[in-house]
Amino acid sequence: MKKQFLKLLMLGAVAMATTISGCSKNNKIPEPEENLGNSSRWITLSGALMGTTPGDGNGGTMVYSVSVNDAKDPNKSIDVYTNGFPVRSQRTARLQSSLDGSTLFNIAYTGPNGGEFSKYKVNGGSSYAELSDKVNISSYATTSPRWVKLFDNDKTGVAVNVSGVKITTEADGITYKYARAKSTVLSLNLQAAGIKTYEQYEIPLLATEEAQGFYIGRLDGPVLNKAGNKLIIGVSKSKYNTATGIADNSGTVKIPAKSLLVDYPSLKNPTLISSTVSTGNTNGYRNFNSYLAEDGYIYQATQEAGSHILRINPNNEYDNAYKFSLDAALGVKGAYIESWTYARNGIAFIMYTHDGAAASAFNATEQQSFIARVDLNAKTAKQVTLPYEPDLYFFQYQGWVVNGDEVFVAVTPVGKDGNIYIINSRTGNVTKGAKLINKTGNHYIGVF
Question: What is the span of the domain harbouring residue 153?
Fold first, then answer.
């Protein structure tokens, strides 16, 4: 009996090994849940309230959540301003959501709660239950930090800030030498709110660049590399007139686009890398600005008149052979990337404006926004078919939801009703979803 049992056990082990071997050869490893799609997740709509002028978004933030099916239903109406929940923030809240949409993460921007990280359980509609664990990072990163979560299964967020810019002169006390500021990089535990670690440094540019008056004015858009040992952080370059010590916003003199590298998870050893393809800034504004794709490269947008998408290789260096100009791809001049998201398989979607875009009625600025579907591998871009109008303004846009092949986006001109639209990342086909009810001066700034 004992020998028979052992024989059966061995046969079972062989059969199991054969099954595992067959699966590994013939079946693809499942993709992450957020890429496969989740029909049961919540989708949170975010709306920015007007402060003093239409479209400024400085009056606070309202949120409201719906099911995926309701988000897709053009017969549904959503009024975040009348029925929504006010997220804590004096100005526009900096929101992120968990992969499944069940938790909303927030860092309040300015005001008495500025710099406070908090979490909300999403229960549907205007029901958001604030969780007890929270932490205030203002003593490290000021009351107005920039932050994003890393793509590490909702474990970590990274906040950054640049403050206290100071001009240093030569020994004579007159001649300009350089300007530098205190840069802060801080990692947050998203699961049990708390500070993991932080580092602060004074980061010099090249001596020749500093001699021209350039310095790091802002950091934003951290992303973790494929190896998981480096953070790549976008850099905004500012400039002083070295003769007067006054800010120089002319833009006539430019230096290469840059990113800050720091070790992860220690956040130590800051170094800068430079691109020869672009002279733009790489920090973005209120959305992710860099994404790690399946090919192991990081793709990064620039903010400049004539924006590019840059590529950083797995060795954490700019791939200067990769040249992707939005002007060339779209057939326009002065294309400016306002917000963007990576979908999958080399496909991304960008919000942009360009030279000659229509002027909006609310501030007479040429800033009408558009959305394009971008193929990062072919380096092509095509405008998505949507109801564009002059008051459509995406500069403050914060959040997209990528759910399988579907990309959800909120499209509302300032002060006017609009809709959720669902774009198929594979085909580019567009479906109109729920109606978004607006109020004078307000606009919807994200889905999460």
Answer: 137-284
* Residue 43 and residue 71 in contact, taking contact as beta carbons nearer than 8 Å: yes
**pLDDT digit string (tens) for 8-42?**
333 343 333 333 333 333 333 333 334 567 889 99
With respect to residue 267, please indicate whether it lies within any of the assigned structural domains. yes
pTM: 0.91
DSSP 254-267: ----EEEEEETTT-
Query: Residue 95: which of 54, 40, 52, 57 has the closest Cα?
Result: 57
pLDDT at 93: 87
Residues 6+ apart with CB under 8 A from 46: 61, 62, 63, 80, 87, 93, 95, 398, 399, 410, 444, 445, 446, 447, 448
Kindly tell me the burial class for residue 439, based on how many C-beta atoms sit within 10 Å of its own C-beta (0-12, 13-18, 19 or more): middle
Number of domains in the chain: 1
The DSSP letter of residue 308 is B
Instruction: Note whether residue 347 is domain-resident.
Output: no
Residues 6+ apart with CB under 8 A from 178: 167, 168, 204, 207, 210, 211, 215
Q: How confident is the model at residue 90 (pLDDT cuts 50, 70, 90)?
A: confident
- Rounded CA-CA distance 87/98 in Å is 16
Distance CA 270, CA 243 (A): 30
- Let me know if residue 143 belongs to a domain: yes
